[in-house]
Amino acid sequence: MAQFFQAKPNKSKQLSAKLSLSVTQLDHLGAGIAQHQGKVVFIPGVLPGETATVQFVEQKKSYAKAKLIAIDLASADRVKPLCPHYHQCGGCDLQHMDINAQRDHKQATLVDLISKLSSAEAIEADMIAKPIVGDAWHYRRRARLATLFDKNTRRLQLGFRAGNSNKIVSIEQCPVLADSLSALITPLAVNLNQLKAKSSLGHVELTQADNGNFAVLRVTKVLPASDIRWLTGFAEKHQLHFLLQDDEGQLTQLYPLLQTDGEVTLPYYHLAQESVRCSFTPGNFVQINEVINQAMVDQAIKWLDPQAGERILDLFCGVGNFSLPLALKSAEVIAVEGVPEMVQQAKQNAVDNQLDNVSFYHADLSADLSTQTWLGKIDKLLLDPARAGAFESLQWLQKMQPKKVVYVSCNPASLARDSSVLLANGYQITQVGLVDMFPQTHHIEAMVLFELL
Does the pTM of the predicted model rise above 0.85? Predict the structure, then answer.
């Protein structure tokens, strides 16, 4: 019998009927959770205790995702978002929630995830450290603005990416960015649109450092002399360190004029009551919340309690954010980082701060470490990994045998997984603390102190 092809309806493009759901809690990504016909439904933009009209955008066997249509019954924790770009920009996702409620949610989520995913015994109240918190607004000392050149209008957009999209949302201000940087966004967009080579511009990185504000403009080709003059004039007017970065990552400083040595001026920040100066290259990782970072470093040192003569290992050390202040305590500090350029900068930072009891090494911390000369018995361990966590590095615990481990995490899921490794090796959790590095967002940073039984 002849068979004829009949196209199946595209269910993904068929909008479901609108329905009203009651929200019971938030997940660790800040989305509301509701129940419908035996399925868990995730709804961004809603809060616990609210009733909302929603529409499904994705359905699976055991869960569904829905978009918010309207709030029918609002929570007392709901507030009006401060940012005019909130509903388009993908940068912040909890501005609709009172800041104290945000922090309560993050603290509860952190403790819950560690307890459930790490097989840890119950986290008792006396084990929960006071959260490290700061200003809810204007806390970011660094941001990367995306650009998009429209060939039809011949205009350059400057802004942030929309949520779950590559679309650029043009912005005029950013209330979580430091005031002095937020004030640069509109005049910078206007001036970049005056350039002849504006179609050859990439992202712009803005940084507020202790030695001034910095702007790094990515360029895909050499700019004409007239564009260089225009940018230099803009930088001088705003007293802004202005650098160009080419496709090879090379930096050229436009303003202020270079000194005779020809080296670009690097941004830096201070730590340990200004006893340590930490320089970094634009583009390399540094913590974006200065106040929270200072408090986090202080707490790590307090928890580790370094003593003269001890051997302390700092893995994922960056440019020395923790290891340089630790070295002030007269312990021997060994610091390891996977990015070669950051290792070189960390070494220079040690020289600049006249610290000769800290050694920096380059190593892939997800690889076999058995041949590394620095790996061996230590007294204490500090970990500050990226979102993927430190699972591979913790496989060497038996060789290191630290009495204390401070784990600084930007991902509670990988923290919980790695906690299982520590617990299985005889460590116990003695302190758990929220670090609210990113207010107005769902991101949860944390610090946990483990001690050997």
Answer: yes
Each residue's pLDDT tens digit, 62-75: 999 999 999 999 99
- At 128, is the secondary structure helix, strand, or coil? strand
Q: Give the start-to-end residue ranges of the domains of the chain.
A: 15-73, 106-135+289-452, 142-255
Please report, for residues 43, 290, 309, 329, 354, the alpha-carbon distance to residue 324 in angstroms, rounded to integers and kept in the order given.
Answer: 43, 16, 16, 10, 10
Residue 421 phi, psi (nearest 5): -65, -45
Helix (H, G, I), strand (E, B) or coil at 229: helix
The neighbour count for residue 418, using CB atoms within 10 Å, is 25
Nearest to 167 by CA among 177, 176, 157, 175: 157
Residue 353 phi, psi (nearest 5): -95, 5
Class of the CATH-defined domain 106-135+289-452: alpha beta
Calpha distance 116→165 (Å, rounded): 32
Instruction: Give the whole-angstrom CA distance, residue 404 versus residue 410.
Output: 20
Q: How far is residue 229's CA from residue 185's CA, in Å, rounded to a whole number? A: 20
Q: To the nearest 5 percent, what fractions of the chain are helix, strand and coil?
A: 25, 30, 45
Closest alpha carbon to 53 in 25, 75, 21? 21
60/360 Cα distance (integer angstroms): 48
- Classify strands 63-73 and 25-26 as parallel, antiparallel or unpaired: unpaired
Architecture per CATH, 15-73 = Beta Barrel (2.40)
CATH for 142-255 is 2.40.50.1070
pLDDT tens digits, residue range 372-415? 999 999 999 999 999 999 999 999 999 999 999 999 999 999 99
pLDDT tens track for 310-358: 999 999 999 999 999 999 999 999 999 999 999 999 999 999 999 999 9
Per the CB < 8 A criterion, the answer to whether 90 and 390 are in contact is no
List, in sequence order, every beta strand (DSSP E) within 272-412.
276-279, 311-315, 332-337, 358-362, 380-383, 404-409
The span from the CA of 318 to the CA of 322, in Å, is: 9
Can 15-73 and 142-255 be said to share one CATH topology?
yes
Q: Each residue of 408-443: pLDDT tens digit?
A: 999 999 999 999 999 999 999 999 999 999 999 999
- Give yes or no for a cis peptide into 187 (omega within 30° of 0): no
Exactly one of 89, 92, 174, 410 is catalytic; name it: 410
The CB-side HSE value for 290 (13 A sphere, CA atoms) comes to: 20
Cβ–Cβ under 8 Å, residues 405 and 383: yes
Position 259 scores a pLDDT of 63
Placement of tokens 């003269």 in the chain? 308
The secondary element (H helix, E strand) that includes residue 25 is strand 25-26
The answer to whether residues 417 and 391 touch, using CB atoms and an 8 Å cutoff, is yes
174 counts as catalytic: no
